[in-house]
Amino acid sequence: MSLRTVDEGDLTVTVKNIGGIDETTVALNPGINILSGRNATNRTSFLRAIMAAMGSDEVSIKGDAEEGRVELSMGGESYTRTLSDRNGTTHLGGEPYLDDPAIADLFAFLLRSNDARQAVVQERDLRELIMRPVDTDEIQAEIERLTQQRDHVDEQLQSLDSLKDDLPPLEQRKRSLEAEIETKREELAEKEAEIDAADTDVDESREEKRELESRLSELQELRSELERVRSNIELQEESIETLRTERREYADALEELPETPMGDHEEIERELTRLRERKSTLKAEMSTLQDVIQFNEDLLSGEENAVASVLSTTDSDGEPTRQLVDDDTVTCWTCGSDVTRDRIEATVEQLRSARKELLDDIQAVDDTLSERRATQEERKNQQQRRDQLTRQIEQNEEERERREETLSELRDRREQLNEEIEAVEREVDELESDDFSEILELHREANQLEFEIGQLEAELEELSERIVEIESELSDESELRSRREELEAELESQRTRIDRLERNAVEAFNEHMEEVLELLDYDNLERIWIERVQKNVRDGRRTVEKSVFELHIVRTTDSGVTYEDTIDHLSESEREVTGLVFALAGYLVHDVHESVPFVLLDSVETIDAERLSDLIEYFAEYAEYLVVALLPEDAQVVSSDRTHTADV
Description:
Rossmann fold, Helix Hairpins, five-stranded antiparallel sheet, five-stranded parallel sheet, 15 strands
């Protein structure tokens, strides 16, 4: 096995016991890297080794080995993948290049069985495949989170708008209070002047005067307290009425909630367990079927493995039992008889169809799981809401009882104050006399003015504090409006994210397909393009409107008339090219090049050498490292100054 010398700065891949490879080290350069050779020269095994080093699980150990290893050295860093056989099961370890290889498996590693590449051939759901890497649940959760934040900001802004309406009457009331207080103070000053004048004219008993003033002061304090009690009574009555209204609302909401028997929870949980087990079984079947498909594809391409080694041993006459590529038959690995390649390929197609059916079954189970989880979550939320309402009702009743007790105490205190006021008023009346009636009336009026001034000043202080609070809250309006604009922009971005991806995918495919068809110049093939349409489709048990990608094929007759054709009438070469361009569209739309430096190509022999050369040059514009497995005659046509050839 010959190897190209590894230059400093090159990317190198060291492989041991992978597929049909014993051990090798291959250097790759940026640009086009050709793995040239006949079938059974382990080119596909080497591509799968690169995939393994990148993180993919689509790899197997050499049939006669118990352990395998791949090391990828690039940019001064090394990435490894180890494989070990434990009782017939392959276990993978090491530290690969990618944490999650799913998007690379789908759009960068374009071997024969690649889903994106096969989507056109098998007439699968193109939209579902291009959107597979997108976590739509996460997008919806982000939309809901942003919506809640925006709604909260809207509530704050509505509150500020209400405060704006409140501010002018509050300021007007403040000015009115200030004027009223000023008037009352002027009246009080006049009363005090009258009292001073009356004091000089009346020679009254100082002791009696002090007693009278004491009773008047006490009377003022009692009246002030009575006013506070009356105000508290009104507040408590309003609070109790509010609590009664809330109690009715809680009770109505509780009554509207459907009854959820505990047995329903248990039944849903049992069904979820059954569905998970069903999904696990289907995935196991899928894994087994994938291994069979991969093995047969390797067999058709001539890849070395344990069974192929047995089938390729010499017979009793010393002649080769099989040459996997030199004639049109293949030795069946199950019975040992010679079978035409067409029959094997037809069987592989049937297996691929079975795999598609399994994928559909798994999707259906996933849909049902999602529905049942949603039902379970809905039931859980209903129960939580029921518990919450029950607690709120209990708390409401406790609070109402407490307030009613307080209200009763306040009413008792009001009666007591009324009795005390009446007693003090009688004492004041007894202290009055004809000589003191005028001055006593002046004192009473002065006391009343002081009481009224005190109330007005208390209201003014409370009003001033409220105005300051409102002005402080209104100062946040500009920031809130900016935040709302940011949230609205984020929401719009999330809502249109899926739409943008779909639109970009269609545009990318149509643009590149047009360029490739012009480059390859197929006879009478005018155009291949995707149309994005809205259709009602089944989603689990529901019918919903979803985007669908419809593939259109337009041909021209010798007379120049255009007509629409079907996928079935595409040649193998045309199908392969269409599938590869669809994979390239996914590669570009999802920016795979930002995380994956490779595009790997294999099994492209159905495309004639001249067109294949142009197609490879086209793909090389978008990948840092394009690694292609080719037959020697195709490799000679593709070779150019940009091409590096490596033997595996």
